[in-house]
């Protein structure tokens, strides 16, 4: 029995985009990766289906958790064929495991009889929904973040009133909306709990008695809350930590022996690429990672219980909470190779990028600020131009921005004040090295009063001292939490 009731009118699966014959080469590759040999009218075992769904999702840069949950909801149990060996075709003409409703541009017989083709079609539709410019965007749109796909998931089924995130008449959350059910499957079967995004009734307009699509009033959302990244992107030698108490097993299955009990927050090193469930007929929405503990012992942990960790940020480091708060909020990233860049200075250019993200500022079509050291081919030109145009930054001189110079504590105070607009202070600061009436005096006073920053000593602020990446993470994290 189908898990969801599908929206018939205006179904977003009525997608006109074709697979453009990418079909057979990629299908062959996915089948090969999953050691899958099709048998007419026969569903693959669950572990193989997990592999097919995962590999098709990764090939299109879509979080596998979402594709697996949609397949679960659409076909009821990851099925292409019914108990008689016939292709599943529902009363509204939804076909197969991904329930492709509109067949324009697709080979209908392959949609019915080729599960890999059907899965790839569904993933392509989902990807096209994500790229639609008439749907709201969330944050910077990092494709690895599950919550960023909220409206793409909705559109996969249809942007009809039945799928409004909020029940207009009551203001309650619409837990019966298609996308809410998909996210619930991720929670129930993927063992990952996506955030409930704080939408409002005023974000949407619709007539519940009409077949017309929802009108999206808010088109650009910016949520400064920790979000959920896919658990299928960890690489060999990455460091991860456990999100809950769990078990280290001898193999990729709960049927294998327990080697050790792991505590929440234990740091592990990924030992290689993920693998699929060892028991063929067991349906897991997660995968298994081979990992190594600090004592050198090895084993397997389910991907659901792992979270990325920067290699250069020690456990219980004083800035750890703020670093990961910004990382999970998709505001602050690392410097590559699993490194955060602990102890490295924050440049003015990188500060401009962070402030644009914090304010959700578009960098498109900004006037040239005219800095001789930031020509239009400069790699950070767009971000610097946008930050200057928004009044968040000014140059060190009229024609110079000095993008590679380290941000100072005085500059940090002024920039954070411009972005977060702390209220007028009731008391003055105690710093003797902050000249009264200086260009940064008021900003320092307000940040000090809001307890965003203290001095380098009780009476010294250190206005010319350089800011490191972790120091700025703490200041910015405190600022967001204050607001």
TrEMBL record:
A Pfam family assignment: SLT
Domain SH3b: 236-310
All residue ranges annotated as the SLH domain in the record: 306-366, 367-430, 431-483
Domain of life assignment: Bacteria
Entry keywords, A to Z: Signal
N-terminal signal peptide: 1-27
PANTHER family on file: OUTER MEMBRANE PROTEIN ALPHA, OUTER MEMBRANE PROTEIN ALPHA-RELATED
Protein name per UniProt: S-layer homology domain-containing protein
Organism: Pseudalkalibacillus berkeleyi
Lineage: Bacteria, Bacillati, Bacillota, Bacilli, Bacillales
């Amino acid at each position: 029995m189908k898990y969801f009731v599908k929206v018939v009118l205006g179904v977003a699966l009525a997608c006109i985009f074709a697979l453009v014959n990418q079909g057979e080469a990629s299908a062959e590759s996915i089948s090969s990766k999953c050691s899958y040999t099709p048998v007419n009218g026969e569903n693959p075992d669950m572990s193989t289906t997990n592999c097919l769904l995962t590999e098709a999702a990764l090939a299109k840069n879509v979080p596998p958790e979402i594709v697996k949950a949609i397949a679960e909801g659409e076909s009821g149990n990851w099925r292409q064929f019914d108990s008689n060996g016939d292709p599943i075709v529902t009363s509204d003409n939804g076909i197969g495991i991904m329930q492709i409703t509109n067949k324009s541009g697709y080979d209908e017989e392959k949609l019915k009889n080729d599960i890999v083709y059907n899965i790839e079609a569904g993933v392509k539709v989902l990807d096209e929904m994500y790229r639609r410019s008439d749907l709201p965007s969330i944050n910077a749109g990092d494709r690895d973040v599950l919550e960023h796909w909220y409206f793409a998931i909705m559109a996969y089924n249809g942007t009809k009133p039945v799928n409004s995130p909020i029940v207009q008449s009551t203001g309650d959350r619409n837990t019966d909306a298609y996308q809410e059910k998909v996210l619930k499957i991720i929670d129930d079967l993927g063992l990952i709990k996506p955030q409930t995004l704080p939408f409002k009734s005023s974000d949407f307009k619709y007539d519940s008695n009409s077949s017309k699509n929802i009108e999206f009033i808010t088109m650009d959302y910016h949520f400064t809350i920790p979000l959920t990244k896919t658990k299928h992107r960890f690489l060999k030698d990455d460091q991860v930590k456990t999100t809950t108490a769990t078990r280290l097993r001898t193999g990729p299955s709960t049927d294998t022996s327990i080697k050790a009990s792991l505590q929440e927050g234990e740091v592990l090193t990924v030992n290689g690429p993920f693998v699929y469930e060892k028991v063929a007929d067991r349906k897991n929405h997660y995968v298994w990672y081979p990992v190594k503990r600090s004592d050198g012992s090895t084993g397997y942990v389910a991907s659901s219980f792992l979270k990325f960790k920067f290699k250069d940020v020690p456990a219980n480091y004083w800035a750890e909470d703020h670093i990961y708060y910004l990382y999970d909020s998709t505001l602050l990233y690392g410097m590559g190779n699993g490194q955060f860049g602990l102890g490295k200075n924050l440049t003015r250019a990188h500060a401009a990028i962070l402030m644009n993200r914090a304010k959700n500022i578009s960098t498109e079509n900004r006037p040239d600020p005219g800095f001789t050291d930031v020509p239009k081919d400069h790699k950070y030109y767009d971000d610097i131009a946008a930050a200057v145009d928004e009044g968040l930054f000014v140059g060190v001189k009229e024609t110079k921005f000095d993008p590679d110079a380290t941000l100072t504590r005085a500059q940090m105070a002024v920039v954070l004040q411009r972005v977060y607009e702390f209220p007028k202070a009731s008391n003055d600061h105690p710093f003797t090295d902050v000249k009264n009436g200086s260009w940064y005096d008021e900003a320092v006073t307000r940040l000090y009063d809001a307890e965003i920053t203290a001095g380098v000593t009780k009476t010294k602020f250190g206005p010319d001292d350089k800011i490191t990446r972790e120091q700025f993470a703490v200041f910015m994290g405190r600022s967001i939490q204050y607001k």
